[in-house]
Design goal:
The structure is a single chain. With 330 residues, the chain is an alpha/beta fold. It folds into two domains: 2-133 and 298-328, Quinone Oxidoreductase, Chain A, domain 1, CATH 3.90.180; 139-275, Rossmann fold (3-Layer(aba) Sandwich), CATH 3.40.50.720. It is built from ten helices and 15 strands. It has helices at 40-48, 128-131, 134-147, 164-176, 187-195, 210-217, 235-240, 264-268, 281-294, 309-317; strands at 2-5, 15-18, 28-37, 57-65, 77-80, 111-115, 119-121, 156-160, 179-184, 200-203, 223-228, 242-250, 272-275, 300-305, 324-328. Helix 5 (187-195) links the parallel strand 9 (179-184) and strand 10. Helix 3 packs across helix 4.
Length: 330
Protein backbone atom coordinates (compact mmCIF):
# COMPACT_ATOMS: atom_id res chain seq x y z
CA UNK A 1 0.00 0.00 0.00
CA UNK A 2 1.05 3.62 -0.52
CA UNK A 3 1.82 5.99 2.32
CA UNK A 4 3.47 9.37 2.77
CA UNK A 5 6.45 9.74 5.07
CA UNK A 6 7.94 12.88 6.62
CA UNK A 7 11.62 13.62 6.08
CA UNK A 8 11.93 16.52 8.53
CA UNK A 9 12.39 19.04 5.74
CA UNK A 10 8.87 20.47 5.69
CA UNK A 11 5.89 19.32 3.65
CA UNK A 12 7.77 19.75 0.36
CA UNK A 13 9.88 16.83 1.59
CA UNK A 14 6.91 14.47 1.88
CA UNK A 15 7.83 11.15 0.30
CA UNK A 16 5.23 8.85 -1.21
CA UNK A 17 6.36 5.26 -0.88
CA UNK A 18 5.18 1.67 -0.79
CA UNK A 19 4.92 0.16 2.69
CA UNK A 20 3.80 -3.19 4.03
CA UNK A 21 0.69 -3.02 6.20
CA UNK A 22 1.09 -6.33 7.98
CA UNK A 23 -1.58 -8.20 9.90
CA UNK A 24 -3.68 -6.72 12.71
CA UNK A 25 -2.56 -8.31 15.96
CA UNK A 26 -4.64 -9.09 19.05
CA UNK A 27 -6.74 -6.07 19.96
CA UNK A 28 -6.01 -4.31 16.66
CA UNK A 29 -7.96 -3.44 13.50
CA UNK A 30 -6.98 -2.61 9.95
CA UNK A 31 -8.65 0.46 8.41
CA UNK A 32 -8.78 1.33 4.72
CA UNK A 33 -8.35 5.08 4.97
CA UNK A 34 -10.76 6.98 2.72
CA UNK A 35 -10.06 10.55 3.83
CA UNK A 36 -7.77 12.61 6.06
CA UNK A 37 -7.75 16.25 7.16
CA UNK A 38 -5.02 18.68 8.16
CA UNK A 39 -4.42 20.77 11.28
CA UNK A 40 -1.87 23.46 12.12
CA UNK A 41 0.00 20.83 14.13
CA UNK A 42 0.73 19.00 10.87
CA UNK A 43 2.69 21.97 9.54
CA UNK A 44 4.87 21.85 12.66
CA UNK A 45 5.30 18.07 12.49
CA UNK A 46 6.42 18.32 8.86
CA UNK A 47 9.38 20.43 10.00
CA UNK A 48 10.26 18.47 13.14
CA UNK A 49 9.46 14.81 12.57
CA UNK A 50 11.18 12.37 10.23
CA UNK A 51 10.43 8.80 9.24
CA UNK A 52 6.79 8.95 10.38
CA UNK A 53 3.53 8.83 8.42
CA UNK A 54 1.86 12.22 9.04
CA UNK A 55 -1.65 13.41 9.97
CA UNK A 56 -3.63 12.63 13.08
CA UNK A 57 -7.04 12.88 11.43
CA UNK A 58 -8.49 10.20 9.19
CA UNK A 59 -11.52 8.01 8.63
CA UNK A 60 -12.37 4.96 6.62
CA UNK A 61 -13.68 1.40 6.70
CA UNK A 62 -12.52 -1.49 8.89
CA UNK A 63 -11.20 -4.26 6.63
CA UNK A 64 -9.77 -6.75 9.16
CA UNK A 65 -9.98 -7.27 12.92
CA UNK A 66 -7.47 -8.95 15.17
CA UNK A 67 -8.02 -11.60 17.80
CA UNK A 68 -10.21 -10.57 20.72
CA UNK A 69 -11.79 -7.55 19.03
CA UNK A 70 -15.55 -7.60 19.50
CA UNK A 71 -16.71 -3.97 19.66
CA UNK A 72 -15.52 -3.16 16.13
CA UNK A 73 -16.37 -5.34 13.14
CA UNK A 74 -15.38 -5.53 9.48
CA UNK A 75 -17.27 -2.98 7.43
CA UNK A 76 -17.63 -0.46 10.25
CA UNK A 77 -16.98 3.14 9.24
CA UNK A 78 -14.60 4.59 11.83
CA UNK A 79 -12.29 7.49 12.58
CA UNK A 80 -8.97 7.21 14.36
CA UNK A 81 -8.55 8.89 17.73
CA UNK A 82 -5.74 11.47 18.08
CA UNK A 83 -4.32 9.70 21.16
CA UNK A 84 -4.70 5.97 20.56
CA UNK A 85 -4.54 5.05 24.25
CA UNK A 86 -6.48 7.89 25.91
CA UNK A 87 -9.76 6.07 26.26
CA UNK A 88 -11.27 7.94 29.22
CA UNK A 89 -10.39 9.73 32.43
CA UNK A 90 -7.80 12.41 33.00
CA UNK A 91 -5.00 13.23 30.57
CA UNK A 92 -1.70 11.47 31.36
CA UNK A 93 1.88 11.84 30.18
CA UNK A 94 2.17 8.49 28.38
CA UNK A 95 -0.72 9.33 26.05
CA UNK A 96 1.79 11.36 24.01
CA UNK A 97 3.61 8.12 23.16
CA UNK A 98 0.74 7.18 20.83
CA UNK A 99 -0.17 10.51 19.22
CA UNK A 100 -0.96 9.82 15.57
CA UNK A 101 1.20 11.62 13.04
CA UNK A 102 3.76 12.61 15.67
CA UNK A 103 5.21 9.98 17.98
CA UNK A 104 3.66 7.16 15.92
CA UNK A 105 2.58 6.72 12.31
CA UNK A 106 -0.52 8.68 11.35
CA UNK A 107 -3.27 8.42 8.79
CA UNK A 108 -1.84 9.71 5.46
CA UNK A 109 -1.76 6.21 4.02
CA UNK A 110 -4.03 3.93 2.06
CA UNK A 111 -4.32 1.56 5.01
CA UNK A 112 -3.41 1.66 8.71
CA UNK A 113 -3.42 -0.70 11.68
CA UNK A 114 -4.63 0.79 14.97
CA UNK A 115 -5.66 -0.44 18.41
CA UNK A 116 -9.37 -1.21 18.46
CA UNK A 117 -9.77 1.29 21.31
CA UNK A 118 -8.02 3.82 19.08
CA UNK A 119 -10.85 3.99 16.55
CA UNK A 120 -14.46 5.08 16.99
CA UNK A 121 -17.62 4.74 14.87
CA UNK A 122 -18.38 7.92 12.95
CA UNK A 123 -21.68 9.82 13.30
CA UNK A 124 -24.56 8.07 11.57
CA UNK A 125 -24.92 9.07 7.94
CA UNK A 126 -21.54 10.79 7.75
CA UNK A 127 -19.12 10.12 4.92
CA UNK A 128 -15.44 9.45 5.60
CA UNK A 129 -14.68 12.88 4.12
CA UNK A 130 -16.86 14.49 6.77
CA UNK A 131 -15.67 12.23 9.59
CA UNK A 132 -12.01 12.94 8.84
CA UNK A 133 -12.54 16.50 10.13
CA UNK A 134 -13.42 15.38 13.67
CA UNK A 135 -10.47 13.79 15.56
CA UNK A 136 -8.46 16.93 16.36
CA UNK A 137 -10.23 20.24 15.63
CA UNK A 138 -13.78 19.24 16.51
CA UNK A 139 -12.83 17.29 19.62
CA UNK A 140 -10.57 20.10 20.82
CA UNK A 141 -13.45 22.59 20.57
CA UNK A 142 -15.81 20.12 22.28
CA UNK A 143 -13.36 19.48 25.13
CA UNK A 144 -12.86 23.23 25.65
CA UNK A 145 -16.57 23.96 25.72
CA UNK A 146 -17.93 20.91 27.56
CA UNK A 147 -15.32 19.14 29.67
CA UNK A 148 -14.19 22.10 31.76
CA UNK A 149 -16.90 24.41 33.03
CA UNK A 150 -19.53 23.65 30.41
CA UNK A 151 -20.65 26.55 28.25
CA UNK A 152 -24.38 27.00 28.69
CA UNK A 153 -27.33 28.66 27.00
CA UNK A 154 -27.16 32.42 27.19
CA UNK A 155 -23.44 32.50 27.91
CA UNK A 156 -20.87 33.86 25.46
CA UNK A 157 -17.78 32.50 23.72
CA UNK A 158 -14.97 34.26 21.84
CA UNK A 159 -13.50 32.42 18.86
CA UNK A 160 -10.24 33.56 17.25
CA UNK A 161 -10.01 33.18 13.49
CA UNK A 162 -11.89 30.84 11.16
CA UNK A 163 -9.81 27.67 11.28
CA UNK A 164 -11.14 24.25 12.17
CA UNK A 165 -11.29 24.65 15.96
CA UNK A 166 -12.99 28.04 15.82
CA UNK A 167 -15.55 27.01 13.19
CA UNK A 168 -16.50 23.89 15.14
CA UNK A 169 -16.63 26.10 18.24
CA UNK A 170 -19.12 28.35 16.47
CA UNK A 171 -21.26 25.35 15.53
CA UNK A 172 -21.18 23.97 19.08
CA UNK A 173 -22.09 27.40 20.46
CA UNK A 174 -25.17 27.34 18.25
CA UNK A 175 -25.92 23.85 19.51
CA UNK A 176 -25.70 24.96 23.17
CA UNK A 177 -27.65 28.18 22.68
CA UNK A 178 -24.60 30.30 23.53
CA UNK A 179 -23.73 33.69 22.05
CA UNK A 180 -20.73 33.61 19.70
CA UNK A 181 -18.19 36.33 18.89
CA UNK A 182 -15.64 35.53 16.20
CA UNK A 183 -12.65 37.40 14.77
CA UNK A 184 -10.89 37.41 11.40
CA UNK A 185 -8.88 39.78 9.22
CA UNK A 186 -11.16 38.96 6.27
CA UNK A 187 -14.60 40.53 5.79
CA UNK A 188 -15.44 37.71 3.39
CA UNK A 189 -14.74 35.08 6.04
CA UNK A 190 -16.73 37.03 8.63
CA UNK A 191 -19.68 37.18 6.24
CA UNK A 192 -19.63 33.38 6.02
CA UNK A 193 -19.44 33.15 9.81
CA UNK A 194 -22.52 35.37 10.12
CA UNK A 195 -24.34 33.10 7.69
CA UNK A 196 -23.48 30.21 10.02
CA UNK A 197 -24.97 31.98 13.02
CA UNK A 198 -22.17 34.09 14.51
CA UNK A 199 -23.77 36.78 16.68
CA UNK A 200 -20.87 39.26 16.57
CA UNK A 201 -18.00 39.48 14.08
CA UNK A 202 -14.86 41.59 14.50
CA UNK A 203 -12.26 42.34 11.84
CA UNK A 204 -9.07 42.50 13.89
CA UNK A 205 -7.15 44.13 11.02
CA UNK A 206 -9.55 47.07 11.09
CA UNK A 207 -9.94 46.90 14.88
CA UNK A 208 -6.52 46.20 16.45
CA UNK A 209 -8.02 46.67 19.93
CA UNK A 210 -10.42 43.80 19.35
CA UNK A 211 -10.50 43.00 23.05
CA UNK A 212 -12.22 46.35 23.63
CA UNK A 213 -14.67 45.55 20.84
CA UNK A 214 -15.50 42.30 22.64
CA UNK A 215 -16.14 44.23 25.85
CA UNK A 216 -18.37 46.66 23.97
CA UNK A 217 -20.34 43.74 22.52
CA UNK A 218 -20.86 42.28 26.01
CA UNK A 219 -21.88 45.48 27.83
CA UNK A 220 -18.43 45.76 29.37
CA UNK A 221 -18.59 42.34 31.02
CA UNK A 222 -16.46 40.19 28.72
CA UNK A 223 -17.12 36.66 27.49
CA UNK A 224 -17.61 33.53 29.59
CA UNK A 225 -15.13 31.49 27.53
CA UNK A 226 -12.32 32.12 25.04
CA UNK A 227 -11.04 29.43 22.68
CA UNK A 228 -7.47 30.76 22.59
CA UNK A 229 -5.78 29.35 19.48
CA UNK A 230 -3.36 32.21 18.85
CA UNK A 231 -0.91 31.75 21.69
CA UNK A 232 1.39 34.37 23.16
CA UNK A 233 0.52 37.00 20.58
CA UNK A 234 -3.20 37.03 21.37
CA UNK A 235 -3.37 35.79 24.96
CA UNK A 236 -3.18 39.21 26.70
CA UNK A 237 -6.13 40.49 24.68
CA UNK A 238 -8.04 37.26 25.23
CA UNK A 239 -7.61 37.67 28.98
CA UNK A 240 -8.74 41.29 28.75
CA UNK A 241 -11.86 40.16 26.87
CA UNK A 242 -12.80 37.57 29.52
CA UNK A 243 -15.33 38.32 32.24
CA UNK A 244 -14.78 37.98 35.98
CA UNK A 245 -14.74 34.26 36.85
CA UNK A 246 -14.61 33.41 33.15
CA UNK A 247 -12.29 30.92 31.54
CA UNK A 248 -9.68 30.82 28.79
CA UNK A 249 -9.07 27.50 27.02
CA UNK A 250 -5.43 27.48 25.90
CA UNK A 251 -5.34 25.52 22.66
CA UNK A 252 -2.91 26.71 20.00
CA UNK A 253 0.18 28.76 19.21
CA UNK A 254 -0.63 30.20 15.80
CA UNK A 255 1.23 33.43 16.67
CA UNK A 256 4.24 31.53 18.04
CA UNK A 257 5.23 30.17 21.46
CA UNK A 258 7.33 33.08 22.75
CA UNK A 259 5.91 35.91 24.82
CA UNK A 260 5.09 37.18 28.28
CA UNK A 261 1.75 37.41 30.03
CA UNK A 262 0.98 39.54 33.07
CA UNK A 263 -0.66 37.19 35.60
CA UNK A 264 -2.29 39.98 37.60
CA UNK A 265 -5.50 40.26 35.51
CA UNK A 266 -5.92 36.48 35.77
CA UNK A 267 -5.71 36.57 39.54
CA UNK A 268 -7.57 39.80 40.17
CA UNK A 269 -10.53 38.72 38.01
CA UNK A 270 -10.53 35.04 39.08
CA UNK A 271 -10.08 33.81 35.51
CA UNK A 272 -9.56 30.10 34.98
CA UNK A 273 -6.84 29.12 32.51
CA UNK A 274 -7.20 25.57 31.17
CA UNK A 275 -4.88 23.82 28.74
CA UNK A 276 -6.77 21.74 26.16
CA UNK A 277 -5.00 19.15 24.01
CA UNK A 278 -7.64 17.36 21.92
CA UNK A 279 -9.50 14.80 24.11
CA UNK A 280 -10.27 11.20 24.99
CA UNK A 281 -12.22 8.52 23.13
CA UNK A 282 -15.09 8.90 25.60
CA UNK A 283 -15.28 12.63 24.82
CA UNK A 284 -15.25 11.73 21.11
CA UNK A 285 -18.22 9.40 21.62
CA UNK A 286 -20.15 12.07 23.53
CA UNK A 287 -19.43 14.60 20.77
CA UNK A 288 -20.55 12.21 18.04
CA UNK A 289 -23.81 11.58 19.86
CA UNK A 290 -24.47 15.32 20.07
CA UNK A 291 -23.60 15.75 16.39
CA UNK A 292 -26.09 13.05 15.40
CA UNK A 293 -28.92 14.52 17.49
CA UNK A 294 -28.35 18.07 16.26
CA UNK A 295 -27.61 17.32 12.61
CA UNK A 296 -24.31 19.23 12.56
CA UNK A 297 -22.25 19.09 9.37
CA UNK A 298 -18.59 20.16 9.05
CA UNK A 299 -17.46 23.13 7.00
CA UNK A 300 -14.95 21.80 4.47
CA UNK A 301 -13.00 24.50 2.65
CA UNK A 302 -11.34 22.36 -0.02
CA UNK A 303 -10.71 18.71 -0.81
CA UNK A 304 -7.53 17.44 -2.48
CA UNK A 305 -6.71 14.09 -4.06
CA UNK A 306 -4.28 11.72 -2.32
CA UNK A 307 -1.59 12.52 -4.88
CA UNK A 308 -2.04 16.25 -4.13
CA UNK A 309 -1.08 16.02 -0.43
CA UNK A 310 1.62 18.69 -0.73
CA UNK A 311 -0.91 21.07 -2.27
CA UNK A 312 -3.22 20.50 0.69
CA UNK A 313 -0.41 21.40 3.09
CA UNK A 314 0.40 24.47 1.02
CA UNK A 315 -3.23 25.61 1.09
CA UNK A 316 -3.39 25.23 4.87
CA UNK A 317 -0.15 27.16 5.30
CA UNK A 318 -1.54 30.01 3.20
CA UNK A 319 -4.30 30.55 5.80
CA UNK A 320 -6.92 31.40 3.19
CA UNK A 321 -9.06 28.46 4.27
CA UNK A 322 -12.26 28.53 6.31
CA UNK A 323 -12.91 25.38 8.33
CA UNK A 324 -11.15 22.19 7.29
CA UNK A 325 -8.82 21.11 4.47
CA UNK A 326 -9.38 17.47 3.48
CA UNK A 327 -7.49 14.86 1.42
CA UNK A 328 -9.60 12.27 -0.40
CA UNK A 329 -7.85 8.87 -0.53
CA UNK A 330 -10.38 7.12 -2.78
Amino acid sequence: MRAYQLTGGGFDGLQLMDRTTGEPGPGEVEVRVEATSLNYRDLMMAKRAAGVVPLSDGAGVVTRVGEGVTEITEGDRVAGTFFSHWVDGRAFAAMHNAALGGSVDGMLAESVILPAHGVIPVPAGWTSTQAATLPCAALTAWNAMVEGRQLGAGQSVLLLGTGGVSVFGLQFAEMFGARSIITSSSDHKLEIMRSMGADVTINYADTPDWDKAVLDATDGEGVDLVLEVGGAGTLPKSIAATRFDGQVALIGILTGPAGETNPFPIVSRSITMRGVYVGSRRMFADMNAAIEVNGLEPLIDRTYAFDQARDAYRHLEGQSHIGKVVIDHT
